[in-house]
Specification:
By secondary structure, the chain is of the alpha+beta class. The protein is built from 9 helices and 23 strands. Strand 4 and strand 5 form a beta hairpin.
């Protein structure tokens, strides 16, 4: 990071003087670093920003994906949106309990008027040497909880309207286009989000507000083994949930696949992925056109429906059999007025083409294709007995007699049984009750407070002084601080945190 100004504060007044005179190399019990006008200067971070993962100025995820022909927003683009960027403000603060070996860290990054991002991390069994090459300490530390909150500053709606003008659609149409482009962007990198995750991201793009990623990892998860684990195992062990505004959280479901070979990774990768697939018809998704000769064209529909299987039609003379030289593939161009994203590599079907030629036999349109009937086993044609298994007192008779002893089916046949599901056990709560007087030790944690009047307040604990408790509450489109008198707190609960 580079910054115009940096302010470093610690809990002690003479901590810097002590380190200068005595050569103390210990970790301070607490540190607060504030940066004004910060910007990225790391090559790897700049690469991710230019690739399209986030905006380097706005910190908005997938900021310009799907907004072709723009790949990275400039100061002129922001001016056309009616936005004047201001200097970013970043703050990093942490507290380290050496006796309990607990580290709590918070990061707040504000990029006005685009977004605000806050992160909270708690590590247990932590020793500072873990970050300086000590393998034993690195294997001992555990992540107790992690949360990341993104808050839109009203920028997403302006971005949607700006990109809608460029792509020839409206704000709602571009929101759908952006979501499809982001899914194609991730698919090219081997990531497939679940339906609920896609819907939540779509609501954030359309409505703005806040989105929170929260993780309560398994106790056996070791951060030092992160690189050696598969992405599926890491996601499962981290136990990640998502929530939009104040809606109930959902499980973050992602599928991981091998990315396509030679997949483009630049900012224009969404369109170039579709362009790299031979024969994709942009006007009719799922149709591939193969030009085999100047006067003969083979059209293959790769999007089967429930009513009809994959079909092949020869748009030339209705010859019964056609033998042609190796085909050449032509890509149909997409009209810019549609405003819809091209088909991604993850959705394209592979069309097998014989290198020596292509031969097809097309039956007449009115010909009926005979389908062979599956063989019927003589011992499976007996009707099922009319018995309700829920009311049966004795054993239910089998719906068919057992097969002959020398039959292969005898290996899997068994009498009918009723299997009961196990009793549903109550899920343990992620919150634990604590004395109200000890809330000061959990600054930055998510808490639930029950007031004397019976009102439940949930949010992140910001401050606790001699008389009041200050809680940060996320609301639709923003956040608010609520001050609650300590005397009015009947019960206090905190999300499961680190233990010594």
């Amino acid at each position: 990071l580079r910054a115009q100004r940096a302010t470093i504060e610690s809990t002690g007044v003479f901590w810097l003087l002590k380190r200068a005179l005595t050569g103390d190399a210990g970790v301070p019990a607490g540190l607060d670093v504030r940066l004004h006008g910060a910007s990225f200067s790391d090559e790897a971070t700049d690469h991710f920003a230019s690739e399209g993962w986030f905006g380097a100025t706005s910190l908005v995820p997938f900021e310009s994906v799907g907004c072709e022909p723009v790949t990275t927003f400039s100061a002129r683009d922001y001016a056309r949106m009616g936005i004047t960027p201001r200097d970013r403000e970043d703050e990093l603060r942490y507290t380290y309990d050496a006796s309990g070996r607990v580290l709590r860290a918070d990061i707040e990054s504000t990029a006005p008027p685009f977004s605000a991002i806050t992160a909270h991390l708690e590590l247990s069994a932590f020793e500072p040497t873990a970050w300086f090459g000590d393998a034993r300490a690195a294997n001992a530390q555990r992540i107790e909880q992690f949360s990341l909150t993104y808050l839109d500053g009203g920028y997403l709606a302006k971005r949607n309207r700006f990109c809608a003008q460029l792509t020839g659609t409206d704000a709602a149409g571009y929101a759908a286009r952006h979501l499809a482009a982001v899914k194609a962007f991730l698919a090219a990198r081997g990531v497939v989000p679940g339906d609920e995750v896609s819907k939540l991201f779509g609501k954030l793009v359309e409505e703005g507000g806040s989105a929170e990623i929260s993780s309560l990892p398994e106790a056996t998860f070791t951060p030092a083994e992160f690189a050696a684990r598969t992405r599926d195992d890491v996601l499962r062990d981290l136990n990640v949930t998502l929530r939009h505004n104040t809606a109930p959280p959902i499980l973050m479901r992602l599928a991981f696949t091998e990315p396509p070979e030679n997949a483009p990774t630049g900012p224009d990768s969404v369109d170039s992925i579709a362009a790299a697939i031979p024969g994709i018809d942009a006007e009719t998704p799922g149709r591939v056109s193969i030009e085999t000769a100047p006067t003969e064209t083979v059209s293959i529909n790769t999007a089967p429906t429930e009513a009809a299987p994959i079909e092949a039609a020869v748009e030339s003379e209705p010859a019964v059999e056609t033998s042609m030289p190796p085909p050449t593939v032509a890509l149909a161009s997409q009209p810019k007025s549609t405003g819809m994203p091209l088909l991604s590599a993850a959705n394209a079907a592979v069309v097998p083409v014989e290198p020596s030629g292509l031969s097809m036999e097309v039956p007449p349109a009115d010909a009926e294709i005979a389908k062979p009937e599956p063989p019927i086993s003589p011992w499976t044609i007996i009707g099922h007995p009319i018995v309700d298994p829920r009311e049966a007192v004795e054993a239910i008779p089998a719906s068919a007699p057992p097969p002959p002893p020398d039959s292969i089916a005898a290996l899997v046949w068994r009498a009918p049984t009723i299997e009961r599901l196990p009793e549903k056990s109550a899920a343990p709560s992620s919150y634990v009750s604590i004395p109200t007087a000890t809330l000061g030790a959990h600054i930055g944690s998510r808490v639930r407070l029950m007031t004397a009047g019976g009102k439940l307040v949930e949010g992140r604990l910001q401050q606790m002084d001699a008389s009041d408790v200050v809680v940060l509450i996320l609301r639709d489109g923003g956040s608010a601080q609520m001050r609650i008198p300590q005397a009015g707190v009947r019960d206090a609960m905190v999300r499961r945190s680190a233990t010594p």
